[in-house]
């Protein structure tokens, strides 16, 4: 199992690097596909992945990405309202075929998966995006590595024993400090190529630490959903890792954080 997981991890890393470097339509298409698969996995937990609420959700996800691609962000709110109205109309007309929680999950899935993951692409198309995009993975996967090592070495105080018995406060702190350190080192290496952010060493360290905190929340939230529905993994798409949501659960949260913190510090609101 370790060998399979390692190989899958290497392939994922290579693909992430390639798509991150290419950016543009390649990254956009990959993010859209990942989002739709993630929505499928989430909807499958409550058995709406092949039903009307799920299909409406996929269409809303595609519509959201279409607005993003054509830079029509001013229409996002209109899309969300229309999507909710269609869901509620379907819920009422087909009552009692679908439960309230199924309709709520259909609406939630658009934001939790598609909207949040879209910030991978949105970070990439900003100024310094080719550099900033890697802070998403530093805050997620880098933090996870440091948290695991710190937890193994120093972990004594359980963080959320009922949800994730192996996670400790020591590991959590190690992940935060590790992501901050990685952000700092990353900025030192590429500081001469960063044009939109002054003092990137400090800023990247802050973004790394903040992303680590948020990524841990994202990881725990994804675990809570799985526990609540009594499943081990969201899917089997990635050998040794599970589904898209099992691998991207923390990135779902770090991508928006990196985007908005970078925007805040770019305009020097500090």
Instruction: Give the number of helices.
Output: 10
Strand content: under 5%
Average pLDDT figure: 93
Measure the end-to-end span.
47 Å
| Order of strands in the sheet with most strands | 1-2
Global Rg: 19 Å
- Counted up, domains total 2
Query: What is the element string, with H for helices and E for strands?
Result: HHHHHHEEHHHH
Helix vs. strand class: mainly alpha
Which spans of ≥5 residues are poorly predicted at pLDDT below 50? none
Please provide a written account of the structure.
A two-stranded antiparallel ribbon has the order 1-2. The chain has 2 domains: 1-125, no CATH class; 128-270, no CATH class. Strand 1 and strand 2 (164-168) form a beta hairpin. The chain contains 10 helices and 2 strands, in the order H-H-H-H-H-H-E-E-H-H-H-H. The longest helix is centred in the last third of the chain and has 29 residues, at 200-228. Helix 2 packs antiparallel against helix 5 (100-124), helix 3 runs antiparallel to helix 4 and helix 7 runs antiparallel to helix 8 (200-228). The protein has helices at 2-22, 24-44, 52-69, 76-93, 100-124, 129-154, 169-190, 200-228, 244-248, 251-266; strands at residues 158-160, 164-168. The model has no long low-confidence stretch (mean pLDDT 93). The relative contact order is 0.13. It starts with a helix and ends with a helix. It has 270 residues and is mainly alpha-helical.
């Amino acid at each position: 199992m370790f060998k399979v997981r390692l190989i899958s991890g290497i392939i994922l890393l290579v693909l992430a690097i390639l798509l991150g470097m290419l950016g543009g339509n390649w990254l956009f298409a990959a993010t859209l596909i990942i989002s739709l698969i993630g929505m499928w996995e989430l909807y499958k937990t409550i058995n709406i992945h092949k039903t009307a609420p799920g299909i409406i959700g996929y269409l809303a996800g595609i519509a959201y990405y279409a607005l993003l691609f054509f830079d029509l962000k001013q229409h996002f709110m209109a899309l969300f309202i229309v999507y909710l109205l269609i869901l509620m109309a379907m819920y009422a007309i087909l009552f009692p075929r679908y439960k309230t929680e199924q309709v709520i999950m259909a609406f939630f899935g658009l934001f939790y998966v598609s909207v949040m993951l879209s910030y991978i692409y949105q970070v990439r198309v900003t100024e310094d995006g080719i550099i900033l995009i890697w802070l998403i993975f530093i805050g997620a996967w880098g933090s996870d590595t440091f948290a695991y090592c710190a937890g193994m070495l120093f972990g004594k105080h359980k963080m959320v024993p009922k949800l994730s018995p192996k996670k400790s406060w020591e590991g959590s702190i190690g992940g935060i400090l590790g992501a901050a350190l990685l952000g700092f080192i990353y900025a030192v290496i590429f500081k001469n190529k960063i044009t939109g952010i002054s003092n990137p060493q400090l800023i990247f360290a802050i973004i790394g630490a903040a992303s680590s905190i948020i990524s841990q929340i994202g990881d725990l939230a994804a675990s809570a959903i799985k526990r609540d529905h009594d499943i081990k993994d969201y899917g089997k798409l990635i050998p040794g890792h599970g589904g898209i949501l099992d691998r991207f659960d923390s990135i779902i949260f770090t991508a928006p954080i990196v985007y908005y913190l970078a925007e805040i510090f770019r305009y020097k609101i500090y």
